[in-house]
Amino acid sequence: MSTTEANLIFERSRAGRSAVAQAPRDHAATRIPANLQRKSAPGLPAASELDVVRHYTRLSQKNFSIDTEFYPLGSCTMKYNPRACNSLAMLPGFLNRHPLAPASHSQGFLQTMFELQEMLKEVTGMKAVSLAPMAGAQGEYTGVAMIRAYHDSRGDTERREIIVPDAAHGTNPATAIMCGYEVREIPTDDTGDVDIEALKAAVGPHTAGIMLTNPSTVGVFERRIKQIAGIVHEAGGLLYYDGANLNAILGKVRPGDMGFDVIHMNLHKTFSTPHGGGGPGSGAVGVAERLLPFMPIPHVIEAEQGGYRFAEETDRPQSIGRLSAFAGNAGVLLRAYIYMRMLGREGMVRVSEFSTLNANYLARELAAAGFDLAYPKRRATHEFIVTMKKQAKERGLTAGDVAKRLLDHGYHAPTTYFPLLVPECLLVEPTETESKETLDGFVEAMACILAESENDMDTIKGAPHTLPNRRFNEVAAAKALDVVFQPAEDGDASAPRTGTHG
Amino acid sequence: MPFIPHTEEDIRAMLDSIGAESVEDLFDEIPADLRAPPLTGIPEGESEMGITRLMQERAAKDGMPSNFIGAGAYEHHIPAAVWQIATRGEFYSAYTPYQAEASQGTLQLIYEYQTMISRLTGMEVSNASLYDGASALAEAVLMAVRVNRRSKAKRVLLPGALHPDYRKVVKTLIGNQGIELVELPFDETTGQTPVEALAPYADDDVTAMVISQPNFFGILEDVDALTGWAEERGIPVIAVVNPVSLALLKPPGEWGANGVDIVVGEGQPLGAPLSSGGPYYGFMTTLKKHIRQMPGRIVGRAEDADGKPGFVLTLQAREQHIRRSKATSNICTNQGLVVTASTIHMSLLGDEGLTRVAEACYANTHALVEKLAAKGIKPRFTGEYFHEVALDFGGDAATRVQTMADAGVLAGLELSRDYPQLDGCVLACATETKTESDLEQYVTTWEQAA
């Protein structure tokens, strides 16, 4: 490893060096009382502008990304993020607007947000949409908190359970707990649909609601959704829609028409805002009529005197409240708006059509190449599951091995070991923005790994071989925890707390 | 077709392979009565040129007023390199670094971020970020309740001089957990939270206490005395801090005799544009002994099969995708890209640059106060302040603020919305971006708005 590549930015630091052009001129010392002052410098890097630019540019080159590799990560919708969405969201007028600027200086922004709410209403079939939640998990919290506020407002306080299918995302049960509910898990049947008998047995006067993803996390459309909605509503519960898989049904079927009372959308999936190496996302929430009074604030509404304004506490006394200091991830919302306007009504439908076409084609081709589909009798939606159960048993070729060896072929791995109910699973989501040639190349790489496993398991088990690192010892990392850099010369644990680095 | 590469020939070949007549056939498992109507409420698609024109008009509509509003979001200069590098496709369009070998760039960057923010706050460990400062405080309150197992009361003390919207967010996000939030009054003369405000709780079971430095009014709290009071009683302290101020102010890791337990705050001042309120990021740092109770992703150093060093997501057993209903939080996606920008921002500024920024903010706000004092406008409180100040405009502040806005100066935030007793007061902030003539313009428009 060459020293320029692997060093931390701190190891490039040299006392007395700095990127001076970025700092304002010197000012007189402050009159901050001595007992409140910092005694020693924090120990941020001391580097030139070129040092910093080169260091982080090189780091970026160690990442896989949509812009550089096919990224068929199931459940994450890694589609192309159009560049115009970024450059237009970063126009100075948008970047410089203070979140608390008066309405008189916010009409361009507010109108855009209002129109985004309207478009999301149309495409989901919900009565109103809030843009406040900052990520999918916060959208889930918002939705379940509204369900709770609804029951509480009716004095219906004995409902303490949220039903969650075993195939659900981990955020679903974690959210239910954060809202003070107990989680009741129900099984999925052999075809990938919810086990209706188990659902019937689970509902009752204690049911607050159910959290469902449709298409589900196993990549099939829940065909009896109307029946499920009937059973839950009959019992007095509400239906929550996890919008992780909205890409599959955009313009084809709407959660509002399926009977859902509240939904969240992942704008960073369906509406192509960037994943950014783990965020920021946006978890916009849509509600049916009966949950309107409980929507979070702020929320853009048409102002009485024309134009637009934010609805605040006084407009919505029953609101579940505020989710962020300001108005959510506005920059992400702008990107989603620009993307939706470029697609338009006709492009919106193409999203689901071509993501579904790509997934069904890829599933078929992988099956032909010798891979087992988890639900071979079902239509794939925008994603599907390959199970390596047979190969794992026969020759020890696991889903994890395939994932790591794919990296050597220049493909990001599909999602592995989720959903938990399918053994040795690879959840594959190609998205609509990938071409047939890319999909064919991926099938070729998969077939190549399968052939390799017949005579050279060592190479597969040792993969990846072509990346900056090979497989990590994660257990050792969790034991000998090192999450903050300590220079060798004064590496005692107390050093950062007294601020003596640098 | 926008963003879809398929040719007619591709579509035909793919359908043949699937054994379907048309794309429509692929949706045959969706019951017919559920099919969506045409999306007539959505406009037809725009070209990139058309949407560019539209967005330019929208962005221009909001003008470019001279902004003196802070109140939790601060205008700072961001070096050009910061977002140019952060929006490189390799950072911008990557996913959460679950496949460590294919994500060393993001992982090493987060490790460097964790180191920088730990040093800045004077703490031992950090996570990879939370959504924003307010929601980070809510997570810190939940974490403190988990940490303080001795306490049975689930009672948390919050200063009244804490950002009011932070208090509201905490209430929303922990509202269903049976936690009691107690508000501590502030001194109406100094604007500080006095230690005497804690006296009524001296013998109570208190689970955690929050201290904001500076507080919402920009006033510097006597953090040693407040922390000391909690230390004597074994109460964990949560610090809410402005990261730019920490270039000058004593880090929370050194407050009182032994420092606080958890530090959170808004990361926006370190490289995120105002951008109508987001995306920003919340930071959280703590002590090693509490790390297993910390929510969110954490990056750790690791060795690969060849003994070569690198980085991985670690302690994932705390998180929702493993522990499901028993997780420390439901958080999954965080604010990765903003943290990327922020790490580059901190690297470019360094200790010297950040100190200069903090000193310039302090100097400009104090200079503004001096200029206004000459016109008879005084700060509402007597306490020392950092880069934000409550100005007593007297009389009809609302009209004057709107008139100043119409003249191109956003004078600050009226405090009466959340503090009826501070009617007529405006919270203003002059960061390093303000020049002498900007300050003069503030004073002139104030006079003209009379």
From TrEMBL, chain B:
Catalytic activity: N(6)-[(R)-lipoyl]-L-lysyl-[glycine-cleavage complex H protein] + glycine + H(+) = N(6)-[(R)-S(8)-aminomethyldihydrolipoyl]-L-lysyl-[glycine-cleavage complex H protein] + CO2
Top-level taxonomic group: Bacteria
InterPro entries xref list: GcvPA, GDC-P_N, GDC_P, PyrdxlP-dep_Trfase, PyrdxlP-dep_Trfase_major, PyrdxlP-dep_Trfase_small
EC number: 1.4.4.2
Keywords (A to Z) from UniProt: Oxidoreductase
UniProt-listed SUPFAM superfamilies: PLP-dependent transferases
Annotated TM spans: none
GO molecular function: glycine dehydrogenase (decarboxylating) activity
Pfam families attached to this UniProt entry: GDC-P
Biological-process GO terms, alphabetical: glycine decarboxylation via glycine cleavage system; nucleoside metabolic process
Enzyme class per UniProt: oxidoreductase
Protein family: Belongs to the GcvP family. N-terminal subunit subfamily.
Subunit structure: The glycine cleavage system is composed of four proteins: P, T, L and H. In this organism, the P 'protein' is a heterodimer of two subunits.
Role played: The glycine cleavage system catalyzes the degradation of glycine. The P protein binds the alpha-amino group of glycine through its pyridoxal phosphate cofactor; CO(2) is released and the remaining methylamine moiety is then transferred to the lipoamide cofactor of the H protein.
HAMAP family cross-referenced by the UniProt entry: GcvPA
The name this protein goes by in its record: Probable glycine dehydrogenase (decarboxylating) subunit 1
Gene this chain is encoded by: gcvPA
